[in-house]
Design the sequence.
């Protein structure tokens, strides 16, 4: 599906505030509410807008530590990969997991209360997943930039 400048402006408004009322979006993009509603519905049906979610301050929930964990598997068998990915999907502290190129197989974004909690997550769960060979952790000290908005140019 091709998107035009009006669609981009609608998406930009929603990236700024996903709860923005249609009337305000319409005002911002210089359209009436009806075409904005139709465009939103079309963007949602096409899967360009996949959903709406609140932005949660993880620190206020007691999860102040961000770590990036690199994982290597012993062997790249379908069984190892499936078992590993199933364990990761079920772990609530792993908020993102990517298969990657290079020396390691996976990059995980892990949140934890503190270093001791990260230690527990790593030693009691991640290294015990069958097929895991190596685990390396990087603790993020501060977020210099953190954006959920995509470039629309």
Sequence:
């Amino acid at each position: 599906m091709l998107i035009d400048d009006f669609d981009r402006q609608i998406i930009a408004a929603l990236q700024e505030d996903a709860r923005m009322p249609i009337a305000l979006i319409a005002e911002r993009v210089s359209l009436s509410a009806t075409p904005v509603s139709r465009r939103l519905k079309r963007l949602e049906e096409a899967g360009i807008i996949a959903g709406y979610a609140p932005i949660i301050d993880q620190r206020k929930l007691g999860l102040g530590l961000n770590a990036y964990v690199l994982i290597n598997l012993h062997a790249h068998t379908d069984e190892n990969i499936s078992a590993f990915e199933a364990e990761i999907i079920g772990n609530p502290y792993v908020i993102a997991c990517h298969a990657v190129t290079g020396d390691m197989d996976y990059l995980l974004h892990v949140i934890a209360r503190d270093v001791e909690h990260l230690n527990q997550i790593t030693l009691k769960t991640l290294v015990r997943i069958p097929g895991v060979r190596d685990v390396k952790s990087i603790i993020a000290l501060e977020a210099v930039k953190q954006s959920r908005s995509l470039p629309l140019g």
Helices lie at 5-16, 22-29, 33-45, 78-89, 115-124. Residues 43 and 49 are 6 Å apart (CA to CA). The chain has two domains: 5-45, 58-140.
